[in-house]
Write a structure and sequence with these properties.
Length: 796
């Protein structure tokens, strides 16, 4: 008699799969196969409800076996309550797809809390290092960038110390890298320097690679912003330095000695604490391609936590945007169709929450809570290979002779027809500052609806370029934005598309000679309607450089008003701008812009606008002086003044009590943001501002030098238009032909920030330099022109 050979692993899984199908049919449900995972299970079980698997990985492999054997029915992978630590990401491929009639659903058991963790529990034996700090040996091979104790994120040793009430960075110091401080650091290799861009346009991150004999830090990195600059002189901090382990709740990992140090807070008993370290960047990837997409997979009701920080990998530049990105997230979706992420939680993550990358169609992200994460919440980003004549830096341009003039995308390697709805996004960008609640780039027809987004360092919603438009943004509640940066919007967009040129005169001539080119990328109209926006350091709605082909209506702007920098074909109507108004900046000659029937509370804050588009008229003012000021510019012939009587301004309803004889149409100002009950209960609402009754502040005093007219840079709008790092400098308003400066290289719109190597923050400082150096035959001026610092010389 022959001995029976033991089952192979493959045979075992096949047998289990057969048993599962039989089990489901026996239960009277021949359409859906359910496979169970539970903390009470074993991976040698067969995955039924009574004998579940212990690991999602094992269950996934069993389902893969079913798929390979030709199973056609719907599948549910049901995970019961508990924390599941993954040793590697769950990567689903095209062969694991469901169908529209028989989807593949991965979900938490009804009413149960299921957590997939990218962390790794640490088994530590603690001993005293000194009277305040404890230490423990970490097993060889384990390194980490973030640490948690009892599910609370801990602070890595830093200077200055963490303070939740301070922005940016929860604490910053100009002397963070001073020699006085760095000379005290014995071995800072591996430390990090975090800083804002000098213009507060996002941030930079550097790693310390060494220290020279003087004690100066040697740094690598700084690639996280696509508008390179020096780091901000004040807004910076350092972390991961042992000598800065001086405050309760801080930790430091010595990777060479494999020793973890921790400074317990009062009341903490370190021996009773459960420590977990970040381990993986990614928990789930749905991976296919255009030819073989992964499709019809749904992930529902699961929590994702403790992914590793990725800020040093944020390096891929986007199209002439200020952004660089890292294509990773707790969930990454690439090459997918009709996949859904529903009613899940993304918390305490080091990097992005979700990244929808390259080819994707009809992805749905809905009902999720995303909070307390290091980078961005939802990123929808295509492939530059899909873009015709792409450029990647602001100062780059495509020579006309080499420009591809075919309209639209070159390939299908971009997301389209995706829905991002009913998500609560808050407290993001805890590490990286050039992030958004929803970031869209190189994509088409993305719907962003009924989301509540707040407490973010930069934009709540950002569209990085004009490719390829067709987006719909409606009923979002976006507030407490641009909290740690500046010169941006609660909604922000750029449109530096293929016709773009860094020299304004050249760009004007291109747009004039080739008017059809402005829509070669922005082929579909983006609609922004029925949203509530509020921005702390910029504009509520900010259409920046070249943003083109937008229709904007029925939006409530609570703080910063609405800005249209140069671009084409923007129609803006029936919006309400509380305590603010319209900010048109440096428009093109034939922009075809329309701004009408809006309720404004200040005169238009135009900067270098010589051509007023197709229509800037029929707007409704609450202050007669503001209307008179605009009519003196030759616009608003049919503008009208109404009494500032609103239905219920204290509750945020700024609809007019009386719309008789006005062009304004009332719209719903009470129902913005998330719609699902669980998220409504969690979501905050913006602070409704008190009405300011006075009109525009009395600014704009002008000064004369050599018969030319100048003024101080006084507003964020003037700073933004010129691309200045701060609200400072002397703006050139007019250079008449009679002026000695007319033949010089100084131009209208230039901002003088220094003269003869001395700063000129205002005209008084410029005058002081001119008086001191009146004996000189030539002046060296540092100016900003076309958002770039330049050096010119002017003869005295």
């Amino acid at each position: 008699m022959k001995c029976l050979r033991p089952f192979s692993v493959q045979a075992k899984h096949f047998l289990i799969a057969c048993l599962l199908v039989t089990f489901c049919m026996a239960c009277g449900n021949s359409n859906t196969t359910r496979i169970y995972v539970s903390k009470r299970g074993k991976d040698t079980n067969n995955g039924t409800k009574d004998t579940p698997y212990a690991s999602p990985t094992t269950a996934k492999e069993a389902i893969l076996k079913l798929k390979k054997e030709g199973h056609q029915g719907a599948i549910e992978l049901v995970i019961e309550e508990g924390i599941y630590y993954l040793d590697k990401p769950l990567v689903f491929r095209a062969i694991e797809s469901g169908t529209t009639q028989a989807p593949y659903i991965i979900k938490a058991a009804e009413g149960q809390k299921v957590i997939l963790s990218a962390g790794i529990p640490l088994e530590l034996t603690w001993e005293k290092h000194n009277d305040k700090i404890w230490k423990a040996t970490v097993p060889n091979g384990i390194t980490f960038e973030s640490l948690f104790a009892n599910n609370k994120s801990l602070i890595r040793a830093r200077y200055p110390n963490y303070d939740a009430e301070i922005l940016p960075f929860n604490g910053y110091a100009a002397d963070a890298m001073s020699l006085k401080r760095t000379q005290k650091w014995k071995n800072p290799i591996g430390a990090y320097v975090h800083a804002l861009h000098v213009g507060r346009w996002g941030g930079f991150h550097y790693q310390v690679s060494g220290k020279n004999a003087l004690g100066e830090l040697q740094l690598t990195g700084g690639q996280q912003n696509n508008r390179p600059s020096a780091m901000h002189e004040t807004y910076r901090y350092v972390e991961n330095v042992f000598e800065e382990l001086d405050h309760e709740g801080e930790w430091y990992l010595d990777n060479t000695q494999h020793i973890l140090y921790y400074y317990p807070a009062p009341g903490e008993h370190i021996e009773q604490m459960n420590f977990e370290a970040s381990h993986l960047e990614n928990l789930v990837t749905l991976l296919g391609n255009e030819q073989q997409p992964i499709h019809d997979i749904t992930i529902q009701g699961i929590s994702f936590i403790h992914t590793a920080p990725t800020f040093m990998k944020t390096a891929e530049p986007l199209l002439r945007s200020d952004w660089t990105i890292y294509r990773q997230g707790a969930i990454k979706i690439e090459g997918a169709e009709r996949c859904k992420i529903l009613q899940s939680n993304f918390t305490d993550l080091g990097g992005n929450a979700l990244f929808v990358s390259n080819y994707n169609r009809k992805i749905e992200i809905a009902g999720n809570l995303i909070e307390n994460i290091g980078a961005g919440a939802i990123n929808v980003v295509g492939n530059p290979a899909a873009v015709r004549s792409p450029s990647f830096r602001y100062e780059e341009f495509v020579p006309i002779a080499r420009m591809d003039t075919i309209s639209g995308p070159k390939t299908n390697q971009y997301p389209a027809e995706c829905k991002i709805t009913d998500n609560l996004i808050r407290n993001i960008g805890r590490i990286e500052k050039q992030v958004a609640g929803v970031q869209i780039s190189m994509a088409s027809a993305i719907q962003v609806s009924h989301n509540t987004i707040y407490n973010v360092p930069r934009a709540g919603i950002n569209i990085g370029d004009g490719t390829w438009g067709g987006h719909l943004l409606d009923h979002n509640d976006v507030f407490n934005t641009v909290l740690e940066t500046s010169d941006h919007g609660a909604f922000n967009s750029w449109g530096r598309d293929r016709f773009w040129h860094p020299n304004r005169a050249t760009m004007d001539s291109i747009a004039d000679a080739h008017p059809a080119w402005v829509k070669l990328d922005a082929i579909k109209t983006t609609i922004i309607q029925n949203n509530r926006f509020q921005c702390d350091h910029g504009w509520d709605i900010d259409l920046d450089d070249g943003s083109t082909n937008y229709t904007i209506f029925n939006n409530l702007c609570l703080s910063g008003g609405l800005k249209l920098r140069e671009g084409f074909y923007r129609t803006v109507y029936n919006n309400v701008m509380v305590n603010n108004g319209f900010h048109p900046h440096v428009w093109f000659k034939n922009s075809h812009d329309v701004f009408k029937n809006n309720l404004v509370m200040q005169a238009h804050q135009d900067i270098q606008v010589n051509y007023w588009g197709d229509t800037v008229d029929y707007n409704i003012y609450t202050a007669p002086a503001a209307l008179q000021q605009d009519q003196a510019k030759g616009i608003e012939h049919h503008g009208m003044v109404v009494a500032s009587s609103f239905i219920n301004p204290n509750s945020g309803d700024f609809n007019l009590n009386n719309t008789t004889n006005t062009s304004f149409k009332r719209f719903d100002m009470q129902h913005f943001g998330v719609t699902s009950d669980r998220l409504i209960q969690l979501a905050e609402k913006p602070e409704i501002p008190l009405l300011i009754t006075q009109s525009n502040p009395d600014t704009g005093e002008t000064f004369k030098w050599k018969q030319s007219i100048f003024k101080n840079v006084e507003t964020l709008g003037e700073q933004s238009a010129a691309g200045l790092p701060t609200i400072a400098g002397v703006l050139t308003i007019d250079i008449p032909t009679s002026s000695p400066l007319f033949e010089s290289t100084l131009k209208v719109g230039d901002v003088i920030v220094a003269c003869n190597d001395r700063q000129t923050k205002n005209f008084q400082e410029l005058s002081n330099v001119l008086k001191q150096d009146q004996y000189k035959n030539q002046l060296k001026l540092i100016i900003y022109r076309n958002q770039k610092q330049q050096e010119i010389f002017v003869n005295e």
